[in-house]
C-alpha cells in the first residue's frame, strides 16, 4: 500500500458518515429502550406518527414516506391492526387502495410515544445549540435530496 494513500477512516467525509451512522444506531437503541414500556418499537412508532400526521394515507404512500418496501408494511400493519392500533379502510374512489387510520387507542398510544420520543431527543440534544441542530438538519435534508435525485434510493 502506498504510504501517501488516504485510508477511508482518515478521510473527513468518511469520519462524518460513520459518526452519523453510529449516532443514528445509538438513538434507535435508546428509543427502543424508552418505548419498551409501551410494547412498540421504532418502526411501529414511525408508522403511528405518520398516520397521526397524515390520516387516511395509503399503504403505498406510507411505505414511500418511510423508505421501506411494501413487504415490511405487509408484516407490520396486520400486527398493529390486530392490536387495535389502526384500521385499514377501502378508498371510496378506488376500492383497490386501502387507506390507514389510527383507532382511538392507536391515537392515545401515539401521543404517549411522541412524548417519550420528544423527551429523548430533547435530553440527548439539549447541550447542542439550536443553530447547530438546524444546520445538521439542513445538511441531512440536502443529502437526502441528493441521494433521491441521483436515484441512489427509491423515493
Kindly summarize this structure in a few lines.
The protein is mainly α. Helix 1 packs across helix 5.
List its salient traits.
6 helices, 155 residues, single chain, mainly alpha, two-stranded antiparallel sheet, globular
Commentary on this structure:
It is built from 6 helices and 2 strands; from the N terminus they run ααααββαα. A two-stranded antiparallel sheet has the order 1-2. Helix content is 64%, strand content 6%. With 155 residues, the chain is mainly alpha-helical. It has helices at residues 12-35, 42-53, 59-66, 70-82, 104-125, 130-149, and strands spanning 86-90, 98-102. The termini are far apart.
What's the arrangement of secondary structure elements?
Layout: H1 12-35, H2 42-53, H3 59-66, H4 70-82, E1 86-90, E2 98-102, H5 104-125, H6 130-149
Antiparallel strand pairs: 1-2
Helix pairs in contact: 1-5, 2-5
Largest sheet: 2 strands, antiparallel
How much helical structure, as a percent, in the residues?
A: 55-70%
Q: What class, by secondary structure content?
A: mainly alpha
**Poorly predicted spans:** none
- Relative strand content: 5-15%
The multimeric state of the shown protein is: single chain
What integer is the average pLDDT? 91
Amino acid at each position: 500500500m502506498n504510504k501517501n494513500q488516504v485510508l477511508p477512516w482518515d478521510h473527513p467525509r468518511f469520519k462524518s458518515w460513520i459518526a452519523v451512522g453510529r449516532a443514528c444506531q445509538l438513538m434507535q437503541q435508546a428509543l427502543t429502550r424508552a418505548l419498551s414500556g409501551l410494547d412498540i418499537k421504532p418502526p411501529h412508532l414511525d408508522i403511528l406518527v405518520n398516520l397521526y400526521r397524515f390520516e387516511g394515507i395509503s399503504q403505498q404512500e406510507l411505505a414511500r414516506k418511510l423508505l421501506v418496501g411494501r413487504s415490511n408494511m405487509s408484516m407490520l400493519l396486520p400486527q398493529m391492526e390486530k392490536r387495535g392500533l389502526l384500521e385499514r379502510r377501502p378508498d371510496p374512489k378506488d376500492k383497490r387502495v386501502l387507506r390507514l387510520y389510527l383507532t382511538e387507542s392507536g391515537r392515545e398510544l401515539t401521543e404517549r410515544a411522541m412524548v417519550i420520543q420528544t423527551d429523548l431527543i430533547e435530553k440527548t440534544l439539549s447541550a447542542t445549540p439550536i443553530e447547530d441542530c438546524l444546520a445538521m438538519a439542513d445538511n441531512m435534508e440536502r443529502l437526502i435530496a441528493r441521494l433521491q435525485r441521483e436515484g441512489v434510493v427509491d423515493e
